[in-house]
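Posting for a labmate who doesn't have an account.
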Amino acid sequence: CAPFDITNHDVGNFIGLDTAESGWGHFGYIDYLYKNHQLPDAEHIGVWEFYQPPGFHILGAIILGITRLFNVVEPLCYESLQIITLCCSCLTIWTVYQILKEFDINCKWLSCLIVVLALHPFFSIMSVTLNNDCMTMYLMTLIIWNAIRWYKNQTFVKMFYLALSFGIGMFTKFSVAIMAVGVGGMFAYVLWLRRSELKEVISQFI
């Protein structure tokens, strides 16, 4: 039930869906993509949040387009964008559950951990915050899960999922690149463990 503009962290503003103009911030970025059906040109790149990768904002533009098909009033169109952050918040909890399962934690303790996580107010806040942070958080946990799965079973398929989650993450926010530090360290350790199979391991890294 939280309004779409409950946060003021660079979200910006919508000028109106029936105008040619776009506002600033994350809302302006979504608005621009919805109205122009193209990425920002050179004139807009340095404006507020327009420098960000467009993953989250493209999804937002698609949601706006779908809601407009049903003649939904503008304020509700904007609130419909919260479906993205709501889904990402829920998926983050599910992914953390999958990560914890990889460590064979006792079922009772695993249930307690997930209950604490699911009821933590942080995820409620993130689920209504309309910027790309919630989607970034989900993709970072997805990278961790895929990295663990690859480490346990070092196949090309597992590596593909890890690479895909990195790619979508970088398409959402550049700060996802920090995950490469931890994953790179894991790669180096596996390379040392399997130094007699360098060709196969390096081919997966590539």
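Reply:
Got it, the structure tokens are right above this. The CA atoms of residues 53 and 171 lie 5 Å apart.
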